[in-house]
Specification:
Layout: H1 3-19, E1 26-32, E2 38-44, E3 52-58, E4 63-66, E5 71-74, E6 84-90, E7 100-105, E8 115-120, E9 125-128, E10 131-134
Antiparallel strand pairs: 1-2, 2-3, 4-5, 6-7, 7-8, 9-10
Length: 155
């Protein structure tokens, strides 16, 4: 098989992966920040000289907690972490899903027990040419992290 055919095939796959959720095109996925509400990952780009971009996204821009229905939902500027605690990722929450965000959230009407709420991040987080963004409304923080060059300098 010719090298040009292989390259063309790979280039055809990358945009399709980027159009889906972020899990197929990002690695080193983790939570950080205040109350673990920032998603960090290294994501592939469609074009450009950087094969991977280290990026982060404040999930408060994407997710809200609906106390009445006791679940997490996709919503612009949802600020879910103000009502939730013990936020973490759980790849094993459901075997047929991607990366689940799990949190203990305030109960409705001041009930005594916290509510375990979860949401599949792959359903609402996208890779927009190397940067994490909130689904279709495109909110996100484009914060590339500094990289160390071959000469040891940071750029």
């Amino acid at each position: 098989m010719k090298l040009s055919a292989i390259i063309t095939g790979v280039l055809a796959i990358i945009p399709a992966a980027l159009a889906q959720g972020f899990l197929d095109s990002c690695v080193k996925i983790q939570l950080s920040g205040k109350n673990n509400s920032t998603l960090q990952a290294s994501c592939f780009t469609v074009v450009g000289d950087q094969p991977l971009v280290t990026t982060e996204l404040d999930l408060n821009l994407c997710i809200r907690y609906n106390a009445l229905k006791q679940h997490l939902a996709w919503a612009p500027y949802g600020k879910f972490s103000s009502q939730c605690d013990s936020i973490h990722l759980d790849s094993n929450a459901y075997l047929d899903h991607g990366e689940m965000l799990v949190a203990n959230c305030w109960p409705f009407m001041n009930k005594s027990e916290w509510v375990k709420a979860m949401i599949d991040l792959n359903m609402g987080i996208k890779n927009k040419d190397g940067y994490l963004a909130c689904g279709d409304w495109g909110l996100g923080t484009l914060v590339p992290q500094p990289t160390v060059g071959s000469n040891g300098g940071v750029h």
